[in-house]
Amino acid sequence: MNISGNTVFIPGSTSGLGLALALALRERGNTVVVGGRRADLLEQIAAEHPGIDTVRVDAADPASIEAAAEQVLARHPGLNVLVTMAGVMSAEDWHRPSSFLATAEATVTTNLLGTIRLVAAFVEHLQRQPDATIMTVSSGLAFAPLKATPTYNATKAAVHMLSESLRLQLADTSVKVVELVPPAVRTALVPGHEENEAAMPLEEFTAEVVGLIEAAPDAREIQVERVKFLRYGEARGDYDRVVAALNPAGGHGE
Predict the structure, then answer these.
(1) How is residue 201 annotated by DSSP?
(2) Distance CA 122, CA 58 (A)
(3) Quick one: pLDDT at residue 250?
(4) Cα(180)–Cα(163) distance, integer angstroms
(5) Could you tell me which residues come within 8 angstroms of residue 176 by beta carbon, excluding any fewer than 6 positions away?
(6) Which of 164, 214, 180, 188 is nearest to 84 (CA)?
(7) What is the pLDDT of residue 219?
(8) For residues 149 and 252, what is the distance between their CA atoms, to the nearest angstrom?
């Protein structure tokens, strides 16, 4: 993915990683469309950042995704980058179904089915572009589990393998598949995470991501340095140590 000259749609980008990346890409000379569920936040973003387009989209709702795709492509027929940023993360207790089943189903719907449905809504259009990119968003937790969030971990592992598979299938097209692999970052993904001293500052994460995209436009995975401890534990042979560090006795992990 080139760092500039693109038209980019980022659903799930009214805050956190998505918004930070949207603003950074806008600064680097891209046309950016921000997507999200809340109309008030979309209006605020449009007012504060002239030139950024917005569209309402709920990644858990297939009809909403289809409607958003129609709007985005009607207004931006040159769209060539989709970033499937939308995601949710919740703590679960799998000792009793009442403590996890509803949350697990909602997490799969947004994180995995949302990603699949977003790709489905844009993949034919992207194949008609001379140079296009699908950027999926997994997590360091796709490679080492956080005890408190089983379904989140599982959906991100699925997004990783989906990305690997799509890259193979789309190799005969103009569409590149790039996987963004964040570590814990100080956002509001879960309550209190913005103040988590163990998490990576959002500004630092965004700057490193943009730098990596610019330095290696053909990269298959965008990995900031901090996520490599989780990403390569099994390959290094210290997976058990990684899992123990992520889930300290009496602690809350990530």
Answers:
(1) P
(2) 15
(3) 54
(4) 10
(5) 1, 132, 133, 134, 167, 170, 218
(6) 180
(7) 97
(8) 10
In order of 12, 27, 218, 224, the CA distances from 200 in angstroms are 20, 22, 25, 10
Alpha carbon distances (Å) from 241 to 9, 56, 203, 216, 237: 38, 42, 29, 30, 9
- Across the chain, which has 254 residues, the per-10-residue mean pLDDT values are 97 95 97 97 96 97 98 98 95 96 98 98 98 98 98 98 98 98 88 79 97 97 98 98 90 45
pTM above 0.90, yes or no: yes
Q: Give the residue from 188, 223, 187 showing the smallest Cα distance to 208.
A: 223
CB within 8 Å of 61: residues ≥ 6 apart: none
Return the pLDDT at 189. 77
Q: Which positions are catalytic?
A: 152
